[in-house]
Design brief:
Blueprint: H1 2-9, H2 12-21, H3 32-50, H4 57-97
C-alpha cells in the first residue's frame, strides 16, 4: 500500500536524501483558498451539465469524499511529521550508548 511506503521514507535519512537529491516542488503562488476553490468551481460547473439541482447528490458526495480524503491525509501527515522526530531520538540514543 502506498501509505506504508510514505511511513517507510519518514526517516531523517529519507528526508535528507529527498532534500539533497529530490525534485523541487512546483511553485504555486495562489492562496490555499484559491487552490481549493478553483477545482471545486470547475467540478460544480461539470455537475450542472448532468444535474441542475443546486443541492445535487453528486455535489454532496463530492464534498463527503473530499472531507474524508482531507481527514485521512491530515492523519497521515501528522504521523509522518512525528516519525522523523522518533528517528532522531533513536539516533541520539545510539550515539549516547556508543
Amino acid at each position: 500500500m502506498f501509505v506504508n511506503k510514505i511511513f517507510e521514507r519518514a526517516t531523517i535519512r529519507g528526508i535528507a536524501d529527498y532534500l539533497l537529491f529530490g525534485q523541487e516542488p512546483d511553485e504555486d503562488k495562489r492562496s490555499y483558498e484559491e487552490r481549493l476553490e478553483e477545482p471545486y468551481l470547475r467540478f460544480e460547473k461539470a455537475v450542472v451539465k448532468y444535474d441542475k439541482n443546486p443541492t445535487s447528490e453528486l455535489l454532496d458526495l463530492c464534498n463527503e469524499v473530499s472531507a474524508e480524503t482531507a481527514s485521512v491525509y491530515m492523519e497521515i501527515g501528522l504521523q509522518v511529521g512525528i516519525l522523523p522526530m522518533l528517528d532522531m531520538v533513536k539516533n541520539i540514543s545510539k550515539e549516547k550508548d556508543s
